[in-house]
Amino acid sequence: VVNINTNGSLLNREIATFCVKHDIEVDVSLDGYQSVHDACRVWRGENRGTFEDVMRGISILKEAGAKTCISCTISENNVEELPDIFNWFLDTVGVSNVGFNPLLNSHQYTINDPDYPSKVAKAMIECFKIARERGIYEARMMRKVKAFVDGTVYDRDCCGCGKQVVILPNGKIGVCHAYSGTGEFFVNPDHAFDPFEHPFWKEWSRRSPINMPKCYGCEALTICGGGCPHNAEINKGSIWEIDESFCIHAKETLNWLIWDLYE
Questions:
Q1: Cα-flanking dihedrals φ and ψ of residue 53, to 5°?
Q2: Which DSSP string do the residues of 128-188 spell out, in sequence order?
C-alpha cells in the first residue's frame, strides 16, 4: 500500500488521475470546518487560511475516484468539538476514511493546556462510538480496541520504532520525520547503508513498552503501544522515557473498554 500525505494545496487533476492509476491513497490534512482549520493552518506570509484550497483539492480527488483520507490533527482549538467535526467529515465532506493525530511538543511548539491529553482521550472515545455505530474504521482507536478484544499485545504505536525509513529532500535518511528540522537520528547514507544494521534503527526497533521496565506495572501495557518516542525525548530527554500524554490516552481507553464490555 502506498500513501501520500499532503496539505492538499497543490492537488490537481493530473495528480489525482496518477493516484487513481497507481492505486495510491491520498491523506489530506484537514482539521475541521473553516473556522477551526484556518485557526491553525494559514499561508506563509499571507493573512488567510488554507481551508478553501484544501477543500478544492479534496473535491478533485473525489471526482477522480482517488482513495481519499482525512488526516485530522487534534489541536487545542478543535479537541472539544471533535465529535461534531467527525460527523461533519462524514456527512458534509463525504469522506469516511479519517485518521486523528494528537499534537506533540516540539522545539517550535509547546502544548499549553495541561488537560489536553485527557481531553484527547475523551474526544477519541466519543469519535470511536460514532465510528462503531456507523461501521467506520478509525485506526488510532481500533489498534487498541483490537488488542483488547483479541487478547493480543499491541507492542508499538509509532512506525518510527522499526517500521519506517524517512528520506529528506537533501538525501539524508532517518528514523522519524519529527526530527527533520534538527537532523537528529538522520544520517548521510553511503553504498553500504543498511537500516537493519544501523544503530539508530536497531535501537528504535526495540523501543516498545514490553522492553521498558517502567511500564511493566501498568494496567494498559498490552494495548498502549508506547506512544511517541520523540515526545518522550523532548519532554524527558530520552526515547526510552514514558510518553505520559499517550499513557493517559491508553489508560482512559482501557477503562472505557472494560465498562463498555460490562454494559
A1: -70, -40
A2: HHHHHHHT---HHHHHHHHHHHHT-----S-TTTTS--EE-TTS-EES-GGGTTT-TTEE-
Strand ranges inside 23-168, DSSP E: 24-29, 67-74, 98-102, 166-167
Q: Sheet holding 166-167: strands in order across? A: 166-167, 173-174, 186-187
Q: What is the pLDDT of residues 69-110, one digit of tens each?
A: 999 999 988 999 999 999 999 999 999 999 999 988 777 778
- CA dihedral over 48, 50, 55, 60, signed as positive or negative: positive
Instruction: Please say whether the beta carbons of 245 and 227 come within 8 A.
Output: yes
Other CB atoms within a 10 A radius of the CB of residue 38 amount to 19
Tens of pLDDT along 153-196?
999 988 899 888 888 889 999 999 889 888 999 999 999 999 99
Residue 146's contacts (CB-CB under 8 Å, 6 or more residues apart) are: 152, 154
Start-to-end Cα distance in the chain: 38
Query: What is the residue type of 200?
Result: F
8 A C-beta contact, residue 210 and residue 153: yes
Q: What are phi and psi of 182, to 5 degrees?
A: -90, -25
What share of the chain in percent tops pLDDT 90?
Answer: 75
Three cell numbers written together for 223:
494495548
Cα separation of 260 and 257, whole Å? Answer: 5
Q: What is the pTM of this model?
A: 0.87
Taking a C-beta distance cutoff of 8 angstroms, is the pair 248, 123 a contact? no
